[in-house]
Design goal:
Number of domains: 3
Distance between the termini: 36 Å
Largest sheet: 2 strands, parallel
Oligomer: single chain
Strand order of the largest sheet: 1-2
Shape: elongated
Radius of gyration: 27 Å
Helix content: over 70%
Number of strands: 2
Length: about 325
């Protein structure tokens, strides 16, 4: 019995239509029809997926001389987790809420330095009567409070995401109706995603303008005020990127698209590791430079520079990953 007949027989034994099998396999109905009509042969990844889905060995699927079904022994293998329609909806709703919280945390990280900058600038204005010691102490206290609040948000979101952690990091199967529901939500969200990213990009590009205006006046306090406006605009832009990106990623995880496709899981893990190491290093550089020199009004420049260099680092990371994959 050839592979085409085996797929058709196994599908019918499970009571599935070609559309249902196609949805479970993340392919089109036409692809399933061609498999069963012996017009095309599934690739290795799909063969393995068919083996897991039907619970039969790959030998049975690939060897024409094997007529009797050979079932896999699942006693030593953990069952593949299944995502129901209810779980998928719960996950998407949670990530929608989490996106707002993570975006707020990112915004806090960007603006955390603003009170310190304003207080430091206020020491140069006699009318305000702000001492340098008070400015440094109060500014640093607020900075760490903002950062602590952001860390608390990130940790809280991470803990609450634990029940859904396997989505996007481990193999899983979606039940009937899940893919269709997610694709509908993805299609409905796309205009908002595009709009959000356009606004975020414009805010980031235009954010230096207030600083340039401040530099023209050559008034130190006004320059710092304009710098804080620049940071606020950049923070809003970064928050919008995070807000839209988290929601889009949640849908991609369920559909196993983009970076969350099975073949790209290794790439994603590498990029996450590189990203984590990079930002931890940037934070260490910022804090080390700031505490050693006490030039907090200058060391903030680490963040915009780190943001620009991050894109270059990720491009190099992608280049090396793709080169390694091609070998």
């Amino acid at each position: 019995m050839i592979l085409a007949d085996k797929i058709a027989n196994l599908r019918k034994k499970n009571g599935w239509s070609q559309e249902e099998l196609a949805e479970k396999m993340q392919v089109s109905r036409q692809a399933v029809s061609k498999w069963e009509g012996a017009q095309t042969v599934p690739d290795l990844e799909k063969i393995l997926a068919l083996s897991r889905l039907f619970g039969v060995t790959t030998d049975y699927l690939l060897k024409d001389e094997l007529e009797d079904e050979e079932f896999t022994d699942d006693t030593d293998r953990a069952p593949v987790k299944r995502v129901s329609l209810a779980l998928a909806n719960e996950f998407l709703e949670w990530r929608k809420k989490a996106a707002k919280r993570i975006a707020a945390g990112a915004f806090l990280c960007v603006i955390a330095v603003i009170p310190l900058l304003l207080l430091a600038a206020a020491t140069t204005v006699p009318e305000y009567s702000v001492s340098e010691n008070f400015a440094a102490g109060a500014g640093l206290a607020v900075l760490f409070l903002f950062v602590a609040a952001a860390v608390a948000i990130f940790v809280s979101c991470g803990l609450k995401n634990t029940p859904f952690e396997f989505i996007g990091t481990e193999p899983f199967e979606t039940e009937y109706g899940v893919d269709g529901m997610v694709k509908e939500k993805q299609k409905a969200y796309r205009p908002a995603y595009v709009k959000s990213n356009i606004i975020a990009a414009c805010l980031c590009v235009l954010s230096p303008i207030p600083l340039f205006i401040g530099l023209v006046t050559q008034k130190e306090f006004f320059v710092v005020v304009m710098l804080t406006v620049t940071l606020l605009l950049a923070g809003l832009g970064a928050s919008l990127f995070v807000l839209s990106g988290v929601r889009r990623a949640s849908m991609q995880k369920l559909l196993k698209e983009g970076e969350y496709a099975l073949r790209d899981q290794k790439k994603l893990r590498i990029k996450k590791t590189v990203s984590t190491v990079y930002w931890l290093s940037a934070t260490a550089v910022y804090l080390g430079w700031s505490f050693l020199t006490d030039d907090w009004d200058i060391t903030w420049a680490v963040w915009p520079v780190a943001g620009v260099l991050f894109s270059a680092v990720m491009c190099l990371c992608n280049l090396f990953i793709n080169r390694d994959t091609e070998r």
